[in-house]
Design a protein that fits this description.
The protein is of the alpha+beta class and 393 residues long. Helix content is 43%, strand content 14%. It is built from eleven helices and ten strands. The chain has a four-stranded mixed β-sheet with strand order 1-4-5-8. Helix 4 crosses helix 6, helix 7 packs parallel to helix 9 and helix 8 packs antiparallel against helix 9. The chain starts with 6 loop residues before the first helix and ends in a 6-residue tail after the last helix.
């Protein structure tokens, strides 16, 4: 596979780089993972979203007829490379741009597309995702939030958990059970629910990082117009899988490469037995091993990219990337604390903390990615059963 960028891709890069250089004053910096929001942080992200959208740079992978650029897979990678080079990222303003918008483009009615897509692009309506429940996390199809038809409405009762950005959201795309006797992958419907509806309440969940971005959302006799049903009633699992498909990354985790470089710089500054930690061969060997694994992850992502460029369905690389990258990120953060010694106990922004305490923050945050988007135990099962052909446990 030839991974050299075409002249068209490089023209795309030049255009976006020039736009970034002229608008960088509006950009938000790359944040520490799962750090709590600072005052004004959300508003700054929304402003950056709107500025990107004004330039036509917010939903580049959407079709042109829906306000995107119809960008190719490689152009999507160029886009994120240029954002990272500029020290910023596409702002997280809920799941409208990356998940719901593409799902509606595929499944929505003409009226739904006209009603919702423009406001998603302009960040006039913020969306959260109502999938997981207290008793249906990795087993998503086991969800029990129910919706009963009542004339032109569905009446929704139940709760969702780990709902990122629910405290900012105007709307939620929601999986509900509309047939209680059908097999669990059947009888599920996909609804769009106004978060300002009577009967919706939000409870923040404080994580060990101190962040409050997760929430539990409760629905008590919430009336949802039937016109907000996406796809057919009881066929929502198909729509849900489309949304999940858009969660797949198109490239390797560039954040890992950045963290390894930062650990090298940390080792050059940390004293150990009269020398810097970097001067000890054992330290360099550990960091070299991290780099080897990061390169393996990068080239595995190229295998995944090759399949996409050839129009093939996703292969096992997705599970392998999720498993290996999150485990490596966890070990990177743990090794940074090992280098820091007692300083590793100082939390983010604490007085006297080296690197402003970001390493302890990363250590606390690194456990989360091994759990969400399908726990690593689930990924082990997928790889064992579907790739290696092992019997089910």
């Amino acid at each position: 596979m030839d991974f050299n960028y075409s002249a068209q891709d490089e023209a795309f890069r030049a255009e976006f780089r020039a736009w970034l250089e002229n608008n960088l004053q509006y950009a938000t910096p790359i944040r520490e993972p799962l750090a709590d929001e600072l005052a004004g942080d959300w508003e700054a992200r929304v402003r950056w979203h709107r500025k990107l959208n004004e330039g036509g740079w917010m939903a580049i992978n959407w079709p042109k007829e829906h306000g995107g650029r119809g960008a190719s897979i490689l152009q999507n990678i160029v886009y994120h490379e240029e954002l990272e080079r500029a020290g910023t990222a596409a702002p997280f303003t809920g799941f409208g741009i990356p998940l719901l918008g593409p799902t509606l483009i595929h499944w929505g009615t003409a009226e739904q597309k006209k009603r919702f897509l423009p406001k998603i692009l302009r960040a006039e309506e913020i969306w959260c995702q109502g999938y997981s429940e207290p008793n249906a996390g990795s087993d998503l199809a086991g969800l029990q939030t129910r919706a009963i038809e009542d004339g032109d409405y569905f009446i929704v009762n139940g709760s969702k958990i780990w709902t990122s950005a629910a405290h900012h959201a105007d709307w939620i795309f929601l999986l509900v059970r509309t047939d209680s006797v059908a097999p669990k992958h059947k009888g599920i419907s996909y609804l769009l629910v106004d978060m300002k509806s009577s009967g919706v309440s939000i409870r923040p969940l404080v994580q060990m990082t101190g962040a409050r971005g997760f929430n539990q959302v409760f629905f008590e006799d919430v009336r949802v117009p039937r016109e907000n049903l996406v796809g057919q009633k009881n066929q929502g699992w198909q729509v849900a899988l489309t949304t999940l498909m858009f969660e797949r990354s198109t490239g390797h985790d560039r954040g890992i490469a950045r963290q390894i470089c930062e650990i090298v710089e940390l080792a050059r500054r940390i004293p150990r037995n009269g020398r810097t930690a970097w001067e000890h061969s054992g330290v360099r060997q550990r960091i070299a091993q991290f780099q080897v694994e990061a390169e393996a992850i990068k080239y595995t992502s190229y295998r995944q990219l090759t399949r996409q460029l050839k129009g093939l369905p996703p292969g096992p690389e997705g599970s392998m990337l999720k498993l290996c990258s999150t485990e490596l990120a966890l070990r990177l953060a743990a090794y940074a604390l090992e280098l820091l010694g007692p300083y590793g106990q100082l939390e983010l922004s604490a007085p006297f903390a080296l690197d402003a305490g970001k390493w302890s923050q990363r250590m606390l945050a690194a456990r989360g990615p091994t759990i969400y988007a399908g726990t690593n135990q689930i990924q082990h099962n997928i790889i064992g059963e579907r790739v290696l052909g092992l019997p089910k446990g």
